[in-house]
Specification:
about 85% helix; mainly alpha; about 50 residues
Length: about 50
């Protein structure tokens, strides 16, 4: 199932691993930032609706 990468196997597999880690980190940071922004916007909307 895994192709024979020969002498480049370490470089290719480590590149895949680094890429996957970076993608996961980007997704996690994006979700965290989205939650923070959503919370801030809800707080602003509540303040505006109270003040009219």
């Amino acid at each position: 199932m895994i192709p024979d990468l020969g002498k480049y196997a370490d470089a290719v597999l480590s590149s895949y691993a680094v890429s996957i880690v970076l993608l996961v980190a980007l997704i996690v940071f994006s979700v965290m930032r989205g939650r923070k922004v959503r919370t801030e916007m809800e707080r602003i909307e509540q303040r505006i609706s109270r003040n009219g």
